[in-house]
């Protein structure tokens, strides 16, 4: 194999492939990145057997071929090279020579035949979105996943397609975040899958918001394909709980708040929150909300701001982090809070198709 490639493009492609390569593996080949030439391009693949990233970049290929090299070390070497054209060439004993201007390296490789390849996706269903829409939907729910590794189903995000409606949902048992979006007519297939946290993390790094991404799913795997990158992942085994049961059928009280002002005040007031008093209170009166917090270790804080509210006075306590999470990821100017009393579930909505259910704290 011999090719020439711009350092900038090689670095960007390596960064994507390296994201999924683990240093903790019992299979030495998984410490490597696979380099191969396909149709006049350099294709780089990294995998940990759960998630695989395959990305291609333009190159001037003189001699096609394939090789695998230690991923982290190759990445360090390429990152240290001066800007310019990089020449990659395999020699005797399948060593890879790397040269750029006056810099020269030669590193040992492993047989590429041992490197695991992804099989073609079979059956299942698919749809097309944009990188921006997919990334934003995931960001609006990902914070609600459970960090408890013994609850693997709740570590992931549910992706559901029913009747042309795509739903992303995440819950940790104390809150629920959900985004629904109608897909174009003619999308074939219906089903529910659970995306593991590692692939969710990679999808949130997708680049150009306008770039198209084709999502294809089967019973065990999912793939996300753009013009130059293919991300493939195993799915989480198990059945997602019936999260819709957590959504009350109706609410008696409604308040409309300016999202950014609400987030700013919450952030300021919660500075006095401690581990033993981990709550903020929101007191609602006619046209005004007051956020307050008290801590015996630190002190107290309160701040009022204008809202649209005509109901009876009420005070509700929340975990401040849980309350701020959706506000950080929404794009709307105003959010709507709906509730029945100070102890029942509270609904937050704002962006089209978004819904968040949070349980108040009893203090």
Describe the structure.
By secondary structure, the chain is of the alpha+beta class. β3 and β4 form a beta hairpin. The strands form four sheets. It has a nine-stranded antiparallel sheet. An eight-stranded antiparallel sheet has the order 15-12-13-14-26-25-24-19. Strands 5-1-7-8-9 form a five-stranded antiparallel sheet. The model has no long low-confidence stretch (mean pLDDT 92). The chain is built from seven helices and 26 strands.
CATH class (first level) name of the largest domain = Alpha Beta
Please indicate the percent range of residues in DSSP E strands (runs of 2 or more). Answer: 35-45%
Count of the separate structural domains: 3
Largest sheet: 9 strands, antiparallel
- What is the CA-based Rg, rounded? 25 Å
Please give the order of strands in the largest beta sheet.
Answer: 10-6-2-3-4-18-17-16-11
Enumerate the spans where pLDDT stays under 50 for 5 or more consecutive residues.
Answer: none
Task: Indicate the mean pLDDT.
Answer: 92
The third-level CATH topology of the largest domain is: DNA Polymerase III, Chain A, domain 2
Question: Would you count the extended β strands for me?
Answer: 26
Query: What is the 3D shape?
Result: elongated
Individual helix count: 7
Output the CATH homologous superfamily of the largest domain: DNA Polymerase III, subunit A, domain 2
CATH architectural arrangement of the largest domain: Roll
Q: Which bin fits the share of residues in helices?
A: 10-25%
User: Strand pairing plus helix content: what structural class?
Assistant: alpha+beta
Oligomer: single chain
* Distance separating the two termini: 67 Å
């Amino acid at each position: 194999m011999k090719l020439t490639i711009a350092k900038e493009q090689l670095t960007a492609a390596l960064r994507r492939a390296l994201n999924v390569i683990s240093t903790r593996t019992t299979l030495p080949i998984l410490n490597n990145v696979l380099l191969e030439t396909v149709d006049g391009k350099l294709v780089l693949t990294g995998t940990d057997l759960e998630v695989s990233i395959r990305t291609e970049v333009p190159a001037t290929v003189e001699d096609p071929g394939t090789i695998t090299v230690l991923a982290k070390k190759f990445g360090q070497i390429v990152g240290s090279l001066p800007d310019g054209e990089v020449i990659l060439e395999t020699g005797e004993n399948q060593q890879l020579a790397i040269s750029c201007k006056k810099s020269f390296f030669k590193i040992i490789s492993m047989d590429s035949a041992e490197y695991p390849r992804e099989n073609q996706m079979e059956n299942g269903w698919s749809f097309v979105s944009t990188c921006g829409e997919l990334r934003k939907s995931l960001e609006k729910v990902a914070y609600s996943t459970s960090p408890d590794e013994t609850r693997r189903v709740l570590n992931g995000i549910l992706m559901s397609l029913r009747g042309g409606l795509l739903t992303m949902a995440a819950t940790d048992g104390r809150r629920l975040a959900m985004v629904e979006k109608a897909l174009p007519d003619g999308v074939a297939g219906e089903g529910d899958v659970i995306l593991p946290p590692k692939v969710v993390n990679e999808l949130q790094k997708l680049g150009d918001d306008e770039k198209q991404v084709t999502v294809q799913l089967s019973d065990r795997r999912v793939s996300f394909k753009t013009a130059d990158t293919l991300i493939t992942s195993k799915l989480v085994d198990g059945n997602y709980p019936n999260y819709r049961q957590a959504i009350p059928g109706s609410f008696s009280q409604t308040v409309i708040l300016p999202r950014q002002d609400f987030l700013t005040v919450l952030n300021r007031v919660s500075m006095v929150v401690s581990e033993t008093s981990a709550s903020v209170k929101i007191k609602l009166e006619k046209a005004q909300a007051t956020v307050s917090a008290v801590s015996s270790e630190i002190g107290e804080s309160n701040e009022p701001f204008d809202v649209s509210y005509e109901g009876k006075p009420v005070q509700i306590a929340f975990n401040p982090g849980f309350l701020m999470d959706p506000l950080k990821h929404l794009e709307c100017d105003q959010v709507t809070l709906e509730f029945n009393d100070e102890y029942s579930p509270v609904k937050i909505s704002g962006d089209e198709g978004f819904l968040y259910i949070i349980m108040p704290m009893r203090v």
